[in-house]
Write a structure and sequence with these properties.
alpha/beta, eight-stranded parallel beta barrel, two-stranded antiparallel sheet, 10 helices, 10 strands, 41% helix
């Protein structure tokens, strides 16, 4: 495994990728998922994020990378208020020993009553947080890029965190830029100080907020985000979300080096 640098909290900087990256590297290199995981480990990756519904989870948890975060879309606006989805989500985290889950709530229905829908979503999220907390699992929401989602607005993100004190924040560096409303991720990071449980890193070009760039070369203030987190003593995970170029493994290696350099 590549040499690790040490974060301010005294632990090695913990870097993850999405399970899809493990599969992309395996396909590109013509190797198994376990061999892909070994290549990623050599590049400095030690964990992976995944949908809790990923059909390859039974195989992925055996490849040598640590499952560190599950994400999912409970249907809080559905007939049962998301109860079935919430139970399955928590059960999957318990089964695979995943310490945190990231909830992406329902989209706001078009022409609906956003305030009423927010209340229903918040109630379902509160119930999910209670179930997960009882099982020893932390729950987060992230700033989500899809513009129909409440989590693409800082006003609703801040309300979720205010209304549900046990809820954590998963900071995604590029999603507010992706949403295109001009909202400031560093302002959101300061608001959520002490409640940031996970960080996703991505970059997009200055010319197009929907076109991905390799970390540190685009318009997203990733260096400022990571340095802010490092200075605050953050000891959690950084997930490299979007890898670019013809050689994905090479870009993983490059992005790992960039994140480590910002944590010195």
């Amino acid at each position: 495994m590549a040499e690790c640098c040490i974060c301010k909290c005294g632990e090695p900087v913990k870097i993850s990728v999405f399970s899809g990256t493990v599969e992309r590297v395996a396909k590109a290199k013509g190797v198994s998922l376990s061999e892909s995981a070994a290549l990623l480990a050599e590049a400095g990756v030690i964990g992976f994020d995944s949908s809790y519904k990923d059909p390859k989870l039974p195989e992925l948890v055996k490849i040598g990378l640590k499952p560190i975060n599950f994400y999912g879309w409970p249907k809080f606006l559905g007939p049962d208020g998301g109860a079935k989805d919430s139970d399955e989500f928590v059960a999957a985290a318990v089964k695979y020993g995943v310490p945190r889950i990231m909830v992406i709530p329902d989209e706001f229905p078009k022409d609906g009553d956003q305030e009423a829908d927010y209340v229903r979503i918040s109630e379902g999220l509160r119930r999910l947080v209670a179930k997960a907390s009882a099982a020893g699992i932390a729950v987060t929401v992230e700033d989500y890029g899809g513009t129909g989602n409440p989590c693409s607005y800082t006003k609703y993100l801040k309300r979720f965190l205010t209304d549900i004190p046990e809820l954590g924040f998963a900071l995604d560096s590029g999603n507010l830029y992706y949403a295109g409303r001009g909202e400031d991720i560093l302002d959101m990071a300061r608001f959520a100080e002490g409640r940031i449980r996970h960080v996703h890193l991505k970059d997009q070009t200055k010319e197009d907020n929907r076109k991905y760039a390799t970390l540190g070369t685009g318009a997203v203030p990733n260096e400022a985000v990571v340095r802010h987190m490092h200075k605050s003593g953050y000891g959690g995970w950084y997930t490299l979300e979007n890898l670019v170029g013809d050689d994905i493994l090479a870009d993983v290696r490059r992005q790992v080096g960039v994140v480590r350099s910002w944590c010195k």
